């Protein structure tokens, strides 16, 4: 059973290492090497792994640019794990037995984009799911599904670790079957399908008018390995690393204002309830009790109009 592997993140690395551990015949490894890795959550480079294991390795930016090359390879199974690009049908069809994809939700629930963040945001249990890769995203029949729980205290990082652990278990069941030539996936029930939409870095903006528990979910969902939640103070953008809802202190303040500062946390009034946030270290010294986080739109518009009027007056005097 010869395999071609395509990947580029931590979940891809787990799969590749398991293929090596199970002595699967790997014809070629294609590793994602973008111009910048800053916006690739959990990025991993496979060049060293392949060199140490004596595997053929090809870097890519757009996998579909390698279609002709992949079609020329003699292989049985294609693994595509941790790649956000849509793989062309020609590449999928190049595998003689078929192609296998991965998704960290309990498919058919949670198809689509940014599943890790959504699992945390909604406190939704997930799964390491390996399925038949088809043209429709995340809709193929399921080979293996190892479930795990998501709890209120989980962050994107802790759920990522649960995903990787569940992948280990699922692959230890799946790979021996694949090596024996077994191919018996179970079709998904489309009537039970739900879908997650794309999330982008700017979606990490904190709206302090929301209840404390919703802000807490956002901060946890947007945390590492994602770009992170953030707010503003004056002209400074402040990244928030972690949070916890405060349920015992009896204090009421204006929405968005800092109420207390202690250790490496600040207590902020939300639209409903209080929340402790931990900003990046370099911003702690600038945050004081009474300061306002975020912007009040009408006040900002008024300030901008005043500045514009001042500029017009200056220009008029010069003319």
TrEMBL record:
GO CC terms in record: cytosol
Domain of life: Bacteria
Keywords associated with the record: Transferase
UniProt xrefs under Pfam families: Formyl_trans_C, Formyl_trans_N
InterPro entries in the record: Formyl_trans_C, Formyl_transf_N, Formyl_transf_N_sf, Formyl_transferase-like_C_sf
Stretches assigned to the Formyl transferase C-terminal domain: 200-278
Signal peptide interval: none
GO molecular function: methionyl-tRNA formyltransferase activity
Domain Formyl transferase N-terminal: 2-167
Protein name, as recorded: Formyl transferase
């Amino acid at each position: 059973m010869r395999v071609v592997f395509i990947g580029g993140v931590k979940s891809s690395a787990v799969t590749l290492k398991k293929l090596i551990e199970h002595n699967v015949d790997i014809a070629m490894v294609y590793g994602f090497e973008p111009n910048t890795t800053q916006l690739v959550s959990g990025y991993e480079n496979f060049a060293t792994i392949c060199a140490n294991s004596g595997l053929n390795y090809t870097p890519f930016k757009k996998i579909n640019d390698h279609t002709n090359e992949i079609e020329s390879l003699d292989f049985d199974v294609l693994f595509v794990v941790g790649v956000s690009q849509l793989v062309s049908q020609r590449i999928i069809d190049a595998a003689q037995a078929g192609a296998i994809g991965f998704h960290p939700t309990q498919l058919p629930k949670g198809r689509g984009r940014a599943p890790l963040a959504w699992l945390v945001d909604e406190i939704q249990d997930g799964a390491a799911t390996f399925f038949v890769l088809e043209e429709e995203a995340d809709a193929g029949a399921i080979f293996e599904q190892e479930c795990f729980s998501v709890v209120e205290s989980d962050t994107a990082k802790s759920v990522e670790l649960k995903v990787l652990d569940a992948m280990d278990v699922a692959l230890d069941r799946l790979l021996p079957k694949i090596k024996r030539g077994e191919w018996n996936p179970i079709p998904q029930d489309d009537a039970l399908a739900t879908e997650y939409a794309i999330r982008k870095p700017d979606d990490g903006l904190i709206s302090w008018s929301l209840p404390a528990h919703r802000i807490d979910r956002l901060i946890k969902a947007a945390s590492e390995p994602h770009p992170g939640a953030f707010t503003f103070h004056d002209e400074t953008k402040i990244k928030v690393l972690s949070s916890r809802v405060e349920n015992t202190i009896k204090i009421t303040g204006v929405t968005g204002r800092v109420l207390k500062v202690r250790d490496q946390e600040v207590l902020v009034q939300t639209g409903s309830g209080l929340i402790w946030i931990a900003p990046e270290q370099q911003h702690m010294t600038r945050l004081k009790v009474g300061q306002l986080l975020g912007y009040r739109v009408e006040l900002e518009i008024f300030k901008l109009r005043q500045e514009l009027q001042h500029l017009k007056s200056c220009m008029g005097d010069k003319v």
